[in-house]
Amino acid sequence: MPVFKRLGQDARTAVIATVVASVVAAPAASAAVAYALNSDRVDKKHAVGSGATRENRAGKLVATNSNGHLPNNIITKAPNADKLDGLNSTAFLRAGGKAADADKLDGLDSADLRVTGDGVAGDDRDMFGCNETTLLYQVLTLKRPARIFVSASAEHGSAGAALSPTIRVELLSEGNVLADTSRVQVPATTTGVGLNVADMLLDSNSNHAYRAHAGSYTLRLQARTYGACTGEYGTYFEPRLSYMLLNAD
Asked: Is the full-model pTM beyond 0.70?
């Protein structure tokens, strides 16, 4: 009898253990079943591949393709599509457009960067004794302030006496000399010589480059002869005068 009594107790123990194990395992089994039923969702949303049509992917998660990219038409327009580095598209110059200051360089108008000029040639001029005469005039009109670079030349020959010819260029306004070049002089000679001057016009008072304001001026090529001053004469041949206008700043 004791043997049968112990077997009955073991049987009851086994039944109780089986029931407890079933109760403990039931939630895990239910969770496994629920997971299996929702394995194609993420946060309750279905997922589709990158090749899905727009209709099939509506309201679903879309996977990237093999290159890690989403389809090109995944969005119609980015929230800041009109901006680049935070700047609106209107802040950029369009192709074929013209910048507001396109005619300037370092703040200077394109007209201030141009080098303009002109030149004239004159007739031969005889000069008796030690006199001074004008070989050429040239009128120029400035639309903006400028410094003036001048170039002049002439040939000189005498009738036999030793003469020393000179030339220089002057800038006049209303008959007053405002600026000039240095006087170019050739030592007294009886042979033909050439005279050339190329220089900035210097202020007659300060010896600095003259800054001419807008207005009308006259350039004058002036000649003077030194040497034998009685009964002799020389001739200035083919006088020429030219200028270039430079930026005044």
From this structure: no
* Cα gap 49→62, rounded to integer Å: 6
Phi, psi of 57 (to 5 degrees): -95, 0
Give residue-wise pLDDT tens across range 145-176. Answer: 999 999 999 999 887 778 889 999 999 999 99
CB–CB of 241/120 below 8 Å?
yes
Number of separate helices (H) and strands (E) present in the chain:
3, 18
Dihedral sign of CA atoms 72, 73, 75, 77 in order? positive
pLDDT per residue over 98-121, tens digit each? 666 666 665 666 655 566 788 999
- 196, 156 contact by CB (below 8 A): no
3-state secondary structure 181-216: CCCEECCCECCCEEEEEEEECEECCCCCECCECCEE
> What DSSP line would sit under 114-150, residue for residue?
--EEEEEE---EEEESS-EEEEEEEEEEESS-EEEEE
Q: What is the residue type of 3?
A: V
